[in-house]
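B., you asked whether I could sanity-check this one before it goes into the benchmark set. Here's the sequence:
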Amino acid sequence: MIADPDQLMQKAAKKANGSSGFALFGGGNKYEEASELFLDAANGYRLQKQGSAAGFAFEKAAEMQLKTDEKDDAANTYVEAYKSYRREKPMEAARTLQIAVDLFTRRGNFRRAANYKMDLGTLFEQELQNPKAALASYEDAGEWYMSDQAEALANKAYLKVADLAGQAGEYPIAIQKFEDVARASVQNSLLKWSVKDYLLKAGFCYMAQGDEIATRSALEKFNQIDPSFATTREHQLLVDLQTSIESSDADMFASQVFTYDQLSKLDAWKTNILLLIKNNIQEAEDDLT
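And here's what the prediction gave me:
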C-alpha cells in the first residue's frame, strides 16, 4: 500500500528540521533522508493527479538535494517540479524550470539547458502570454545550441526569435535572424526550400519599417544570399508590393496580396504584418489628400 503523501510531507519536514545534519548513531544525512521522503510524497501526489502538490514536493526535494551539494540531482528534480506545475500553475512551472536551467548552465551542460530554454520559451509564449520573455528564452537557447555546434537546433530557436520580434515591431532583430537563418540554410539541400520563406518574411519586415531605400537594397541583398530567389514568386511579390508602397496605392497592394494568397496561402504572421503595411500606405494616402 502506498503511503499517504501528506504524511510523507510531514515526516520529511520533521526530518529536515532535525537538530543535526547527520542522524545519531551512524544514521544517514538528514537532508538526504528528507529528500527521499519528499520525492516519495511527490510521486504519491502524482498518482493522485495532484499536480500542484507534486510540484511543491519536488521543489522541497530539490532544496534538500542542494543542501547536500547534489546539484545534478537537484536540477533534474526541479524539472520534475516544472512538469508537475505546468498544467495548474504555469508561473510556478516557469520559475522552477528557470532554476533547473541555471543549475545546468553552472555545470556546463548547455545542450540540456538549451532544450529546457526552448520549453520555457513555449511556456511564456503560449500559457503565460509573455512574448518578451519568450523571445529572450529562445534567444538564449539559440546561442547555447550554437555554442554546442547544434546549428539546426539553433536556427529553429532563432526563427522563433524572428517571428516574435516581427510581431512585436522589433523589425531589425527579426530581419537579422531571418537573414542569418537563410544564409545558414541556403547550402543545405534539406533546408534550402525554406530560404524563400525566410527572405519573404524579412522583406515584409523591411517594408513595415517604412524605409523604401533600405527595402530596395534588401531585395538586391536577398538575391546575393540565394541567387535562385530572383526566380521565385516570393521575390516577385516583394517587388510588386514595394512598387505599390512607393506609389502609395493601397488598393494595388491589396490586390497583389490577394493574388499571391490564391496560390500560396498566407499564414497569420504574414497576414498581420501585411495588414499593418497596408494601413501605413493608407495613412500616407490620407496625408497626401
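One thing to flag: Residues 46-51+82-168 form a domain with the Serine Threonine Protein Phosphatase 5, Tetratricopeptide repeat fold (CATH 1.25.40). Otherwise nothing jumped out at me.
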